[in-house]
């Protein structure tokens, strides 16, 4: 039976979702779902639902949603983000569709069960976890949720004496590794991430040049290409239409200040978390900090974090080997390493739950 099972590891990200499967397939999809606004748009697109980058390409003709934007469903409550029940249900529907789409792209065995491990923010609430499990219900026969930084550590074989800092679009998650599954109280989640950096950069550019035309998508791409923490000898100059005329704008200081917003909360939480442990463990954690997630790719971030930690005894900071698939790969390794009786119990439990719901 085990030969017919498909195991899937998934990093269900706020901005980007990635998955890898035991059959060797992998998939990456921007975490956004769209529906044609009318029958003309649906006829043009040739489909009732659109995913990922195709949504952004055709966004003018779509009603779209980022189901986990700003940590919604995964960490923050919908009331904190000002969503009513109708909007929450729309986010839930989008999440279900997105998970189904990503799973289909890794081509699971259609004749066997699908078992998955999915990453979550470190301090996600029970309600958030239930929402994510609901999103996976039609795609997986059994699913286990794990802290996202734990999956990153598992991928890198850094399961002991390591502090993982996973920098996503919606949250920053910190998790110390001591050779066992981490307790909730040992972890921290910051409700802040790349989305806030994008917003800061967007506002700074428009404040400096009010007549410039720029989109949030353009800002994100600028950050991913030019983003840095600290100083740089290079000037970041972009061309934007200003009153219809292409104009070169130097945004070096704007991108510097926007990206710098990530550093203080990370330092504060690293110091707070490390201080909970005995002195010899504090040194181990500070000297083995692993950065994961898309935000880890900002130029100069490891070096600036080391400098900021000098008053606390210093630190050694490195990036994960793969910011896109590290979490999904670690989740897959964990899924394939779990005893089969564990998965059987989970599958039976889900079957009972479905029967009760029916």
Q: How many β strands by DSSP? A: 15
CATH architecture field of the largest domain = 2-Layer Sandwich
Q: Proportion of β residues?
A: 15-25%
Look at the structure and name the CATH superfamily of the largest domain. Answer: ATPase, nucleotide binding domain
Which CATH top level class of the largest domain fits?
A: Alpha Beta
Helical content class: 40-55%
- Output the structural class: alpha/beta
Q: How many whole angstroms does the radius of gyration measure?
A: 21 Å
Spatial ordering of strands, largest sheet: 3-2-1-7-8
How would a textbook summarize the main sheet?
Answer: 5 strands, mixed
Mean pLDDT: 90
How many DSSP H or I helices?
13
Order of helices and strands: EEEEHEHEHEHEHEEEHHEEHHHEHEHH
N- to C-terminal separation?
28 Å
Specify the overall morphology.
Answer: flat
What is the fold-level CATH name, i.e. the topology of the largest domain?
Nucleotidyltransferase, domain 5
Overview of the structural elements:
The protein has 358 residues and is α/β, with parallel strands linked by helices. The protein has two domains: 186 residues, Nucleotidyltransferase, domain 5 (2-Layer Sandwich); 67 residues, 2-Layer Sandwich (Nucleotidyltransferase, domain 5), CATH 3.30.420. It has 13 helices and 15 strands. It has a five-stranded mixed β-sheet with strand order 3-2-1-7-8. Strand 7, helix 4 and strand 8 form a beta-alpha-beta unit. It is flat, with a radius of gyration of 21 Å. The mean pLDDT is 90.
